[in-house]
Amino acid sequence: MSAFIEVSQAEMVFNTKKGRFHALRDINLTINKGEFIALIGHSGCGKSTLLNLIAGLLMPSSGGLICDNREIAGPGPERAMVFQNHSLLPWLTCYQNVYLAVERVFGGKESKDQLKKRTTAALELVNMAHATHKRPNEISGGMKQRVGIARALAMEPKVLLMDEPFGALDALTRAHLQDELLKIVARTQSTVVMVTHDVDEAVLLSDRIVMMTNGPAATIGEILDVPLARPRNRVELAEDPTYMHCRKAVLDFLYTRHGVAHKDAA
Amino acid sequence: MVSAVFHSPLDARDAAQAAQGATSPAAASQPMTTASTAAPAASAPKTVSPKPPIDWGGWALKILSPVAGLALLIGIWALLTIKGDGAFPTPLMTWDAAVALFADPFYSNGPNDQGIGWNIWFSLKRVAMGFGLAALVGIPLGFIIGRSQIISSMLNPIISLLRPVSPLAWLPIGLLVFKSADPAAIWTIFICSIWPMIINTAVGVQRVPEDYLNVAKVLNLSEWKIVTKILFPSVLPYMLTGVRLSVGTAWLVIVAAEMLTGGVGIGFWVWDEWNNLNVQHIIIAIFVIGIVGLLLEQALVAVAKRFSFE
Fold this sequence. Notes:
The structure holds 2 protein chains of 2 kinds.
Chain A lengths: L2 E14 L2 E14 L3 E5 L6 H9 L6 E6 L2 E2 L7 E4 L11 H13 L5 H14 L15 H14 L4 E5 L7 H18 L2 E6 L2 H7 L2 E5 L7 E6 L8 H4 L3 H17 L4 H4 L1
Parallel strand pairs in A: 3-8, 3-9, 6-7, 7-8
Antiparallel strand pairs in A: 1-2, 1-4, 4-5, 9-10
Helix pairs in contact in A: 2-3, 2-4, 3-4, 6-8
Chain B lengths: L1 H4 L3 H35 L12 H25 L10 H13 L12 H32 L1 H14 L8 H8 L2 H26 L3 H10 L3 H39 L4 H10 L3 H28 L4
Helix pairs in contact in B: 2-10, 4-12, 5-6, 5-8, 5-10, 5-11, 7-8, 8-10, 10-11, 10-12, 11-12
């Protein structure tokens, strides 16, 4: 496996109305092709900022980011993003939302028929073919998120970036979508970077868990390997010693060593 | 009058919601009444399906109470004019005058004596011209102000300064520049109805959710696609609120402007009838102006509803 995304010495400082806010410092991270990385940390630790840096929505104050041997200079369709609140356009149907992305990426080189096939295939991949012509406000939150994932996958991105994609869903829907994501990733061999605050989600899904210290000036505290064989089954893993060990390691990092002071937690 | 017309954008949104809320009972009554008329037809052959129960209470509330309110108004009017010495006409006198007036709405006896239909038509034409020009200039300008911080801070003081100016203060400028009454009236409507459209469009553009713009960035959409697929649909409800307020303003202004400029039009007609001391006709004009304004507003509310996505 080769280094696919490389973050070196990235530093992020925001100029806000209240003055400078030092969000991230000394971020060094190498992500291999086909790897599933989870970014975990307490809220406000800058994990979404790091994801936005990789997406190109933010530019680092210093340091550099490289994706597939090219410097990340802005957002691009090879780094597709799944947003926390799905961000589907409410005036377009599910089909049109996905088609917008497909058309942008493949419109120049493929016929209309091929574009339509790609759109339909992406919706089928997330089991949303039945809602093709529905508008986002006519389907449930979990379904919207699936369409959001379909939109991202339809672009055949080199990297799939996910910003707490299941954070707004109820526990059952979340578990269901996690299982589906596992299957999709196994099938598409995608490289995934996912921001999460859910320890079980991180251990279940990822190959490596990047744990971040608390902000301001947060950095990567520790990187944990998750040596669990795939395909993974959540029920079997519940009693797996390796799973429990990983889970314990993350909890230990988050709550014993980098627990949030009470005034922040409130 | 001015404060009632120029809402701040926030008020405008509230007003729009209130207006939608106000119209929804009417919309809700629609299927009910069609159901009640359809029911006998459906049950006529053989009859198995039970008649859907008719909500008499709700029906009375929706139809009867506005009628009762109107009756009350006319009743008070009749009581106040019961000892009529003829100075202020009774409802019956006004009604008779209206019947005579609307019997021949499109007669024409020279420029100063034309039917009520012509007067309304010419006023509407002026409103359409002034308002159309205002939309043509105001909506694109609103987009530009919403998109560009520099232009926004450049133009905001000017807009704040000119917006509260009374419509009639603009009339002499129009007369001076155009040297003719009709373009001056159109100019006055233009300048008064442009502000709500600029402001609401700009606010709409500024409030396009960041998420949608991030989607545009990640997808790397072209500026054209951003405008057509994201900005325009997202701004449309705000824009239509602006348009609605503008039409209301334009219709308010036209009456005042025509009183001063003359010509054929409902405003001029009011003033003409005052000079003739024909008070019945003035009262009829007030009702006509109100009804036309209401229809314009309702038409735009219907358009706005069609384009609402929430």
